[in-house]
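This entry is set out below.
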Amino acid sequence: MAINSVVESWEEVSVEQVAGLVGNTGSTTRTFTVDFTGSDSPNTEKMLAVDASKDGVTIPPLWEAHPYNAWWYVVRKTARRVKPHYYEVLVNYEYIENPLDQPPDISFDFIVNQEPVDFYYDDNGEEQPLTNSSGETFDPPINKEYYDLVIRIVRNQDYYNALVAAQYIGNINSDAIWGLAPGTVKCNVFSGQPKRAAQLYYYQVSYEFQVRFDVWRRRILDQGFREVTGVDEDGVTTYATILDDNLKPLSQPVLLDGDGEQLAESADPVFLERNLCRQLPFAYLQLPNL
């Protein structure tokens, strides 16, 4: 590679900075000219121009920090032939504040879900079993719209552990967080994307939490085809198939009382509450305040 000179040009120098909600950004360009001796082919020259060096002047490599500030760094270089064996090289810099010092980006939304409901509110605002006029539950059950609060957080971290994320996805809080009771906050998204700024490698981590104030339990009607009859000599619970008046097995399940026995005709239906999600300590995630 034969080069006569590499010179930085100071014409039309401009800098742009933009204020951002979660960190400021900017861009600027440095311009160099590269004069080849003509001993190389044009195809070779255009490839060599972007990394040319001569007499202590070197076109900076990608990701190199600007001499003024480490958070201005090279993101793009473009070589353009001005005349035979003479090239103009544009070196584009971008600026961000230290990614690990930027505040998290927090947003709120609501989503609606259609889910079975087994109660209604009477005129006094009290919950009552949702049944027909003869006290039977509806089949299929009545659906109700639930509006769940969604909290989204995007922040920069110097680490991301996919194995930890896999434990939290789809599970709920065992501790109070943001003033919300245990069992009310479910983790729907916990993803990490590798990022780089100058010489810093980090992760942009995205979280999404869905809040259900009635807690993430399923209310299941207690019904079945058998009932508890007692305990045998080994302490094992025993069961018997429930028969109809003709001593034949039932074709439809009967209501149970929560203890495995048939429900009295005048009693309200019993619903069992079951956690279908594991409960984990969300304090471990060191989430920001809202």
Q: What stands out?
A: The chain is about 5% helix and 50% strand.
